[in-house]
Structures are given as structure tokens and as C-alpha cells.
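can u pls check wat happens w/ protoporphyrin IX containing FE
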Amino acid sequence: MNYTRRHLRLGWWSLLVFLLLGLGLELLHGFKVGLYLDVQNETRRLMWTLAHAHGALLGLVHIAFALSVPYLPKLATLNRARISWCLIGASVLLPGGFFTAGLAVYGGDPGLGIVLVPIGATSLLTAVFLAARASGSAETPDGTGGRRD
Ligand code: HEM
């Protein structure tokens, strides 16, 4: 599995999708759509803004992981796969949970989709913990560790 290619593709495409969501929110403002801007729909606005922000930032996290992979040659194959799947899970569940939670809101309460959010957050924290733990043994791809001598 080429993790650099996988996560560069996922990162750039998810960044595009969630920036387009930002553009969609911009349009809802521009056309003063009550479904989004009315005071009683404040929860929906918060949920969709959170979906946009988390989705865009997770796209950048995919790109950061893709670019890190060549510097982590000692990262065990199993942990590389774990980080990859945890990041993918987080990218679906965190912004997806916020977005679906905003589709049907119950007064000040978000919809049922909100239950996906803590699962996505746990998935993201797991991926970041595994990557942080591996970062101590980072090397340059040529194995010199950046030394010139
Ligand atoms: C990497 C790029 C981006 C990141 C990390 C990002 C992140 C965020 C964050 C954190 C917020 C919440 C701000 C707050 O409520 O205080 C926000 C709001 C917003 N963003 Fe982005 N954004 C990005 C790019 C864009 C782009 C390209 C667009 C439009 C084309 C956009 C449109 C919006 C809109 C309209 C809101 C306000 C939503 C509302 O309050 O109703 N964003 N963004």
C-alpha cells in the first residue's frame, strides 16, 4: 500500500469538498436563508460550521501524514495501517457527524448524527497518538538524519 499517495489524494479531495461546503455556507449567508440563519436554527448553523471547519482541517492532517510517511521508515507496517484507517474513520465520522446532526435539529439540540462525533474524535486521537509516538524515530528518506558529514 502506498500510504503517501493514498493520503495525498484523500487530503486534497476532502479539502476541496469541505471548502466547497464553506462556499455553500457563504451562499446561505448571501441569500439570507432562514433555514440556516434564523435564531431558532442556530444549532444547525453551528453544526454545519463545525462540519466545514473539521473537514477542512482533517484534509490538511491527511496531507501532513502523507508527507510524513517517507520520514518514518521505522513505523511498523501494522501501525502505519492503523494510523491510515483511523484518519479515514475520523474524516468520515467527525465532519459527517456534525453535518448530519445539523440536518434535523430539535430546538437547541442537534440531531442523532452527533453520536458519530465522539467516535470520530477517538479515532483521530488514536491516529495522532500513534504518529506522535513514531515521530521520535523520524529520519530523512536517505537515512542520513539530515546530517551533512
Ligand atoms: C483550510 C481552509 C479553511 C479552514 C481551516 C476554515 C475554518 C473555519 C472555521 C474554524 C470557521 C468557524 C469560525 C467561527 O465561527 O468563529 C469557519 C467558518 C466559515 N467558513 Fe471556513 N475555513 C476554511 C476555508 C473556507 C473557505 C474557502 C470558505 C468559502 C469559500 C469558507 C467559508 C466559511 C464560512 C461562510 C464560515 C462561517 C459560517 C457561519 O458562521 O455561518 N471557509 N471556517
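The two ends are 33 Å apart (CA to CA).
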